[in-house]
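Working notes for the structural subgroup meeting. M.R. asked for a predicted model of this chain before we commit to crystallization trials. I am recording the input and output together here so anyone reviewing the notebook later can reproduce the run.

Input as submitted:
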Amino acid sequence: MKRVFLSLGLLLSVSLATVVFNACEGDDNSGKEQTEPDDSALTSDVGVVINGVKWATRNVDAPGTFAAKPEDAGMFYQWNRKIGWSATDPMINSNDEIDWDDTIPTGDAWEKANDPSPAGWRVPTLDEIKKLLDTENVTQVWTTENSKNGYRFIDKQSEKSIFLPAVGYRYYYHGRLYRAGSHGYYWSSMVNDGSNYDAYGLRFDSDDAYWLLWYRRGDGRLLRAVAE
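Returned structure, recorded in token form:
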């Protein structure tokens, strides 16, 4: 009889401990779900080397941060300016303002003080964009990732790759959004010598990807950073 009472008492003790443990574990899990994401996940990136250049795997979002996922747009930036603009409407910037700046950005190159890339990263040069477009060493594929159109650039030697979403751009005159989903536009840090209006960048659509000289520095375009 004593053995029965002892076994029953032990069983009740174990059951009570299990209930308490599960309740505490549930509280911890609930707390974690309600906690904001670790900031380091948005300010750091492992990067991928494509044709000798280390590219971030995600676009620049608000100044000093990366987008949460490779297929996320991040924010648009006017050339040599550190204020981000929403890649979807309604239009709002990283300072929670809605008044579009239609003046022409100045400078001979994208200045460090105006670079919105997270620490350890920067706006790419034109030569670095050209290496990404080097078809001898990099495969370019128009594709869809998680319902987002864009280009995947694949290093032929390592087979590692990055995905750049195609989310259009904001027009310099009024900030209106154009070509979302069909075209991708990304800035470089370089300008045409002697010009006060244009800057180089990457452009792609479903047919091709190439670098070009844009007349309008005031357009809002995306940024994909490279490692410093």
